[in-house]
Amino acid sequence: MALNVRFHVLATLLSEAVRGLSRNKLRSGLAALGITIGIAAVVCVVAIGRAGSDRLEEQLSNLGDNLVWVEAGSRNVNGVRSGTHGMNNLSVEDAQAILHEVPQIKSVSPQVDSRVSVVYGNRSWNTTYRGVSPDYLQIKRWQVAEGVPFTDEQVQQSANVCLIGQTVRDQLFGPQKAVGQDIRIHNQLFQVVGVLGAKGQSASGSDQDDFILLPYSAAQKKLRGKGYYWVDDILCSAVSAQEVSEAVDEISRLLRQRHQIRADQDDDFNIRRPEELIKAQLETKRNTALFLIGIASISLLVGGIGIMNVMLVSVTQRTREIGLRLAVGATEWAVQMQFLGEAIMLSLFGGIAGVFVGVASSIIYGRVMDWPMSIPTQALIIAPFFSIAVGVFFGLYPAFRAARLDPIVALRYE
After folding, report:
1. Which pLDDT band, with edges at 50, 70 and 90, does 126 fall under?
2. What pLDDT is recorded for position 360?
3. How far apart are CA 348 and CA 14, in angstroms?
4. What CA–CA distance (Å, rounded) separates 130 from 137?
5. What is the pLDDT of residues 251-276, one digit of tens each?
6. How many Å apart are CA 196 and CA 144, to the nearest integer?
7. CA 285, 288, 292, 297 torsion-angle sign
8. For the chain, what is the mean pLDDT?
9. Is the Cβ–Cβ distance between 320 and 405 less than 8 Å?
10. How many whole angstroms separate alpha carbon 85 and alpha carbon 230?
11. What pLDDT is attached to residue 280?
């Protein structure tokens, strides 16, 4: 019985609130518009922030399996960063020493790379070749979509085999089958034994699928030149993310010892942890999203002030009505609930409309930017409740002012 009474009272309050707001539809709509814009802005910012974070997390996953990247050349030589190419201070033996003497490292791959023109039939394409070991695929978490990877035996034999990225496959072969075909790199024919799975663009916007993999021994002897001994980089995979820092220290000590670098001399190599850059970008992205949410919330403040102004005007215009209700026995609480209900209904309508506008804007933005947009469910649930809270906060004063009117003075009001 008590539940039915409460439900009846609530229904009456809602119907009275809707009736009161409908007396001036334009004014009510403009008041709710501020809340709509604020909620839409928050939903859109949250969705865009989530999409950006998802892309960065994907890039972090694509970087590699706890990747530690050793580059030839010092990070700083007389204030100037030296390049990797042309530096003769990293060797395959260095890579093997890291694998065998640094317990925090589980796999390594020497790397020799350069730009090259690749030819198949009457088609050609400028791309990058990377001479690596079979462990490269595991270190970089790369799958072979077609065919098979080359083997350690083929590396030992300096075999003319290669894996190609999806972009190279599309440019050279189109709809034709690529596996088993021969492509020309410089004056050498290499057989395509596999096609790598697509990874798309990197965080910097470069095409991760525009390259060719081949045995590092073949790259050294047949593309760099007979007797070429050095490598450009050594890619390493740590046993766990927690071991990466210690692995970096151990690799640095080992290479300084192998290269006979004195204590007063700089390294002739540098060690990078690319995931640290992505993690920093991810943290920056999240902080920026919180900052933008704060800015978007200003619209909610403006919308709340608009609701307060509308309700104060409504109280002034309906002074005689309020006085009549109080004179015939209405309680102050009932009058407060009437006007507070109107403020809540305004903000709730604006909040629901804002959710729809925010979702639509996020979808449109995602299609324009070619981003897969995922709108957090909690944002859609919290937004209407947040708008209700705005309505309560900014509707309390007008409701309190209406309830405190003197019935006699209110009835005389013109």
Report:
1. very high
2. 83
3. 12
4. 12
5. 989 999 998 888 888 888 888 776 55
6. 4
7. positive
8. 78
9. no
10. 10
11. 55
Q: What's the confidence (pLDDT) of residue 144?
A: 92
Instruction: With 0.90 as the threshold, say if the pTM is over it.
Output: no
Q: Which residue has the higher pLDDT, 227 or 94?
A: 94
* DSSP per-residue string spanning 214-250: EEHHHIIIIII-TT--B-SEEEEEESSGGGHHHHHHH
Whole-number Cα distances in Å, 400 to 77, 87, 191, 224, 304: 73, 79, 83, 84, 16
- What is d(CA 207, CA 117) in angstroms, rounded to the nearest whole number? 17
Write down the residue that tokens 């990247």 correspond to.
Answer: 69
Distance CA 246, CA 31 (A): 59
Q: pLDDT tens-digit profile of 136-152? A: 998 888 889 999 999 99
Instruction: Return d(Cα 132, Cα 112) in angstroms, integer.
Output: 7
Task: Tell me the average pLDDT across 5-17.
Answer: 53
Q: How many CA atoms lie within 13 A of 17 on its CB side?
A: 25
Contact between residue 408 and residue 323 where contact means Cβ atoms under 8 Å apart: yes
Query: 45-58 pLDDT, tens per residue?
Result: 777 777 766 666 66
Map 44-59 to HEC letters: HHHHHHHHHHHHHHHH
Name the CA dihedral angle for 46, 51, 52, 56, rounded to a multiple of 10 degrees.
Answer: 130
Q: Which residues pair with 128 in a beta bridge?
A: 115, 211
Structural tokens at position 82 = 């030296």
**Residue 337, CA distances (Å) to 20, 55, 320, 332, 408 in order:** 13, 47, 18, 9, 21
Q: Which amino acid is present at 83? A: G
